[in-house]
């Protein structure tokens, strides 16, 4: 079976007024949305849930309702693929080591925080940061991502989507 997941991070609502309209277009065919933190408010989950079910973790800039409801990290299963989700993975030079320590059995580790898209395989573990949906910082555009999982072949592929 094939799976498509929508990956988003660093929406920072209400500092930024809304989730970009492009998210609805690009996530229209996903079966699950993963938010890698810095939602800032739980209303983001409610809005995204109009597209597909949402799994999320808290980031480092959250209102109290998010902190009370969401874990700092979690593991989920999408098809046959184990996915670790955390907001902060640390310094880029240690991403691979930190990901393996935090999620030793995960095929994919999704993270956010830096607002810098990242999509690289490290010794059989895909590390994926979609960038920020609302705050491009030093990037040319804001971005989101998609994860493609093929249960039959075991292949997993991430795609960064500029918006």
Automatic annotation (TrEMBL):
One function term, GO molecular function aspect: hydrolase activity
InterPro entries in the cross-refs: Calcineurin-like_PHP_lpxH (IPR024654), Metallo-depent_PP-like (IPR029052), Phosphodiesterase_MJ0936/Vps29 (IPR000979)
EC number, UniProt record: 3.1.4.-
Pfam families, per the entry: Metallophos_2
Cofactor entry: a divalent metal cation
UniProt entry tagged with the keyword Metal-binding: yes
Enzyme class: hydrolase
Annotated Calcineurin-like phosphoesterase domain residues: 5-144
Keyword line: Metal-binding
Entry similarity comment: Belongs to the metallophosphoesterase superfamily. YfcE family.
Name this protein carries in UniProt: Phosphoesterase
């Amino acid at each position: 079976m094939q799976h498509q997941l929508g990956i988003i991070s660093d929406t920072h609502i209400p500092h930024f007024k809304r989730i970009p309209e492009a998210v609805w277009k690009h996530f229209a065919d996903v079966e699950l949305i993963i938010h890698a933190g810095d939602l800032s408010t739980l209303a983001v989950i409610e809005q995204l849930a109009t597209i597909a079910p949402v799994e999320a973790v808290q980031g480092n800039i959250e209102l109290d309702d998010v902190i009370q409801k969401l874990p700092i990290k979690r593991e989920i299963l999408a098809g046959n693929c184990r996915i670790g989700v955390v907001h902060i993975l640390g310094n880029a030079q240690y991403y691979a080591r930190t990901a393996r320590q935090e999620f030793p059995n995960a095929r994919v580790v999704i993270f956010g925080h830096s607002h810098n898209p990242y999509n690289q395989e490290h010794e059989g573990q895909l590390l994926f940061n979609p960038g920020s949906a609302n705050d491009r910082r030093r990037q040319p555009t804001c971005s989101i991502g998609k994860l493609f999982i093929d249960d039959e072949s075991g292949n997993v592929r991430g795609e960064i989507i500029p918006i």
